[in-house]
Amino acid sequence: AADKIRLIPQDFFAELCEQIIQHLNHKIPGINTAELCQRIQTSGVDINIGDLAKVANTLSFLFSTAARNNLSTEELIATLGSGVSTLPKHAVQVIRHVWNEQGKAIAVSEDARNVATVGQFVDMKWKLGVAMSSDTCRSLKYPYVTVTLTVADPSGQITDKSFEMTIPQFKNFFRQFKEMASVLETV
Question: A single GO molecular function, which one (predicted)?
């Protein structure tokens, strides 16, 4: 991860660290690595989304482990310095600053984070379509609903999950959502 961190300019690295801290503090549902990766690439840096996701996961693990062990800023920096591959100076400065400013807030909320090991729902989009024909069938006229769920996994990576349903499947899906809503109103 240290080699990939070297590629990321300091301002983008600081933004990534801030987003991770906000995610660990439950202020945002996750880190949108796709959007951040696109902005980094636009600035002229050759990095792919997989590498950026690895960096984000490494930093998330670093901050959450430091919070669990209640490390001070100096202890965290000393631990980073004793690592196998050394981080670039700008990265250590950013980590020091972010941890110094917001590290204690994570330590308080880390117990709550340990409970939630599943992803978090962020958004849902849907659209109605009609399949007119295919290679094997000339006249389908088959209606369907495409649903795209935006989910933040436990590490904070935001991903989209899409699926299609027939109209009867969608009606069942809708009925289950209504049941959930009525149960939630009683809570």
Answer: NF-kappaB binding
